[in-house]
Amino acid sequence: MAEAGDEVLNLEGKCGVSGGVQDMYGEDKATEDQLVTPWAVSVASGHTLLRDPRYNKGTSFSENERDAFFLRGLLPPVVMSQELQEKKLMANLRNYEVPLHRYIAMMDLQERNERLFYKLLIDNVEELLPVVYTPVVGEACQKYGSIFKRPQGLYISLKEKGRILEVLKNWPVKAIQVIVVTDGERILGLGDLGCQGMGIPVGKLSLYTALGGVRPSACLPITIDVGTNNQKLLDDEFYIGLRQKRATGEEYAEMLEEFMAAVKQNYGEKILIQFEDFANHNAFELLAKYRTSHLVFNDDIQGTASVVLAGLIASLKVHNCSLADHTFLFLGAGEAGTGIAQLIALEISKKTGSPVEENRKKIWLVDSRGLIVSSRMDSLQHFKKPFAHEHEPVDNLLDAVKAIKPTVLIGTSGVGKTFTKEIVEEMASLNEKPLILALSNPTSQAECTAEDAYTWSQGRAIFASGSPFQPVEYEGKLHVPGQANNAYIFPGFGLGVIMSGTIRIHDDLLLAASEALASQVTEENYEKGLIYPPFTSIRKISANIAAKVAEKAYELGVASVLPQPRDLVHYAERCMYTPVYRTYR
Ligand SMILES: NC(=O)C1=CN([C@@H]2O[C@H](COP(=O)(O)OP(=O)(O)OC[C@H]3O[C@@H](n4cnc5c(N)ncnc54)[C@H](OP(=O)(O)O)[C@@H]3O)[C@@H](O)[C@H]2O)C=CC1
Ligand SMILES: CC(=O)C(=O)O
Ligand SMILES: [Mg+2]
After folding, report:
1. Predicted-assembly ipTM surpassing the 0.95 threshold
2. What are the pLDDT digits (tens) for 498-508?
3. C-alpha of residue 299 to centroid of ligand 3, in Å
4. 56 labeled binding residue
5. Within a 10 A sphere around the Cβ of 13, how many other Cβ atoms?
6. Domain 39-80, CATH 1.20.1370.30 — does that match?
7. CB count in 10 Å sphere of residue 374
8. Residues with active-site annotation
9. What is the 8-class DSSP label of residue 107?
10. Class of the domain covering 315-484
11. Residues 141 and 193: beta-carbon distance below 8 Å
12. pTM metric for this prediction
C-alpha cells in the first residue's frame, strides 16, 4: 500500500553519505527563517502504521499483515498474541513503584497502541482505574507541564477567541459524539490547575470508552484556557498554559458562548457536552444557560448526584427504611453537595408525591462558614438558598452533627481529614449503622479514610469514598469500602444518551441511572458492606444504566433513534466498542 510521501521518496530519494535519505526538502538544512512543508500521508503502512495508535498492533501484526503493509524488518520476528502483550505490559506496570510512573506508562501506551491500552484498562479495571483516574490523575495534572509529551486533546485558549470553529476543525476526527470540557478551575479537590487540567477530560474520556464502550475516536477532550489564578503555575517555567490571570465576566461568557455555538455548528445537535471541574461560580450558570439549547451534562453536579443517590437507594435494604426516613448532613455545599441534595429531594418526591421543597427540609448542608441557615440567606450563593432552613447558627461540623442528628453524613468539601474521630464517633453514637460518604478527591482530600470510618465506628459504618481505599480488617471482619464516584454513572449514562439519540438531558434520566446502578448491587456485595457493585462488572453495569436511561428518554419523547430497539440492554451491549485487534486487509 504505497503512500503519496513514500512514492516521492522511492522515485527521487537518494542515499546521503551517512546512509540516510538525502535532505531533499531542505528540512535538515533549513534555518529558522526558511519555510519547509510538513508532508503528511493519508493511508497508513510501514513505519507510519506503527506510529498510528489507532491501528498499531506492535508485535501482534500477523505474518500476512507484515508482508501486505511493508512492515518486514520494522518489527522483531516474534508474533505475539494480544493476550501475551497484555501480560507483558501488566508485569512491566507492576514493576513501577511510583504511581505517577504507571500513569506515564499508561499514557505512553495510549499514544502507541490504543486497543492494547483499552484491553488493559478493561481487563484490569480495579487495578488500573486509580492509575488513569483518581487519585493518580490528580498528581498528573499538578505535574502536567513536566510530563506533557504529545497533545491528547484540543487546547482552546483566549488566543483562539474569534476562531474557535476553525480550531475544532483541526481535530483529525469529524464524527465526534462526546466532548468532555474543562476550564481547569476546580480540578478534583486540588483547585485551579489552569491548562494542566487537561488530564481530567483525557481521563474521563478514557473511561467513556473503557467503562461505557463509546468508541475512542468519537471522544474529544477539550481544555478551555482562559488563564489561571494559580500563582505557582504562573511562575513555573514548564507551565503549558496562558501566562495570565483568569478572564472573567463578559470576556469569559463570550468565550464559552462562542465555544458552545461552534461545537453545535461543527458536530450537530446531538453532540454530548460534559462539563467537568469548572468552579461552581461558572458551573451552575453554564448548565442553566445551555441545558435547554444543547445536549449538556455537568458531571460534578449531575453525575455525582446520580451516583450518590444510587448508593443511598442501595443502602435502604441495609437500613430497612425509605429515603424519606433519613436525615442528611453534608460538609460542602458546592456543585457536588447541592447537586446531590437536589436529586435526593426530587427522588423522594417521585416516590412519595410530597413537594420537593418539603423534602429539602431533612437535608442540611455545612459550608466553610458553618451550617446553612435562613439567617444567612442574603449572603448565600443561589444554589445554597433552597437548603437554608430555620435553625440557630452553628459554625462547625461536630456541633452540626450534634444538633441535626443525621443518619447520613456526606463529605463534598474538597478538604481532607475533616471527618474527625469525634465526628465519626458522634455519628456512631447516633446510628446503629451510620452511613458515611467521604466523596472528595483525590485521596489526600478525602474527608476520612476507610480505616478511620471503620475503626472510629467500631466496624459499624457503611462507608464509601470518591477515591478508592483498600479493604480494612477490623476485629477479625473484613470491610470492603465502596467507591462512590461518578465514574459509575457518566460512561453508561452517556452511552444511553448517544445510542438513543437523546436530544436533551432531563433530571428523570439521572434518576433512571441511579435506579439502574442500585439494582446491580448483589447480596454478595451487601455481605461485604458494599452499597455499590464492584467495578469488575462495570461494562455490564454500564449496559444496564444505558438501557434504563434510553428507556426513560423514549418515554419522555426526547430520544430520536427510531424505532426504539426492543431489547435495550442487548442493544447497548452491541453498541459497545471492544478493544480486540482487527485483521487488516
Ligand atoms: N466522588 C465523586 O464522584 C465526586 C467528588 N467530588 C469532589 O468533591 C469535592 C468538592 O467538589 P465541588 O462540590 O465541585 O466543589 P465546590 O467548590 O463547588 O464546593 C466545595 C464546598 O465545600 C465547602 N468547603 C470548603 N472548605 C470547607 C471547610 N473547611 N469546611 C466546610 N466546608 C468547606 C465550600 O464552602 P464555601 O461555599 O463556603 O466556599 C463549598 O461549599 C472535590 O474534592 C471533588 O473532587 C466532586 C464531584 C464528584
Ligand atoms: C470525580 C470527579 O468528577 C471529581 O472529583 O471532580
Ligand atoms: Mg469532576
Report:
1. yes
2. 999 999 999 99
3. 6
4. no
5. 13
6. yes
7. 13
8. 133, 204
9. H
10. alpha beta
11. yes
12. 0.94
